[in-house]
Amino acid sequence: MTERLWTFAAGADGPWRITEVRAVIGEALAEAPRLDRIAGHAAGRGLWSLRGITSNERYVTRDEKQTLTAASPPLGRSSAACAVLIPIRKSAAWWALAQDERRAIMEEQSHHIAHGLRVLPAVARRLHHCRDLSPDEPFDFLTWFEFAPEHEAAFDALLDVLRASPEWAYVEREFEVRARVDMGPEN
Fold first, then answer.
1. Would you say 148 and 93 are in contact if contact means Cβ atoms under 8 Å apart?
2. Measured on CA atoms in the order 159, 83, 136, 173, is the torsion positive or negative?
3. CA–CA dist 26, 171 (Å, integer)
4. DSSP state, 105?
5. What per-residue confidence (pLDDT) applies to 2?
6. For the chain (length 187 residues), average pLDDT per consecutive 10?
7. What is the pLDDT of residue 58?
8. What pLDDT is stored for residue 1 in this prediction?
9. How far apart are CA 91 and CA 9, in angstroms?
């Protein structure tokens, strides 16, 4: 069975060496030296921990889902020495919209999936839903990306395009935790 609950813990331990914590909208969480992505419940570990569950894709059509599935690489590839965790909280106005209205903003106006497909298969990604766990979670989504260092510019370009889209007008809080697999002093 595939694990659905994941915890991202920042502290002294973990395979990912945090290279930067950058606030995009609102405050970032405290900086820490390491990041771990843990299957299951590990709240309270480290300086901070965030949790989310993997779930069904809510805003895709069948054709889009098939295209995404075919183009999406797995997480954990040996070449993917870079990772970015992006926690996002959207506004109450976003959640007051019906699902078809949110889909229209994401796709007809913002072209979220089409832009994302441009970086596949170079960038592996997984969305973790927090709202499904509790309304008290500090974020709605935890987005996790892994890629090889040579694909960082393409990933950054994707972020620029998405953050300029109508969808991002509904984002209240967002920050980035950039990390690398610690392979030694040259990394």
1. no
2. negative
3. 10
4. I
5. 61
6. 85 96 95 95 83 88 92 95 98 96 95 94 96 91 98 98 97 98 60
7. 82
8. 39
9. 25
Which parts of the chain fold into alpha helices (H)?
62-71, 92-96, 99-103, 112-117, 152-163
CA–CA distance, 102 with 140 (Å, rounded to integer): 14
The count of other CB atoms within 10 Å of the CB of residue 8 is 24
Output the pLDDT for position 176: 97
CA distance 54 to 56: 7
State if pTM tops 0.90.
yes
Identify the structural domains of the chain with CATH numbers, from first to last: 19-26+56-181 (3.30.70.3420)
**DSSP codes, 7-42:** EEEEES-SSEEEEEEEEEESPPPPP-SEEEEEES--
Q: What is the pLDDT of residue 183?
A: 59
- How many residues in the chain? 187
**Distance (Å, whole) CA 9 – CA 57:** 24
3-class state of residue 20 by DSSP: strand
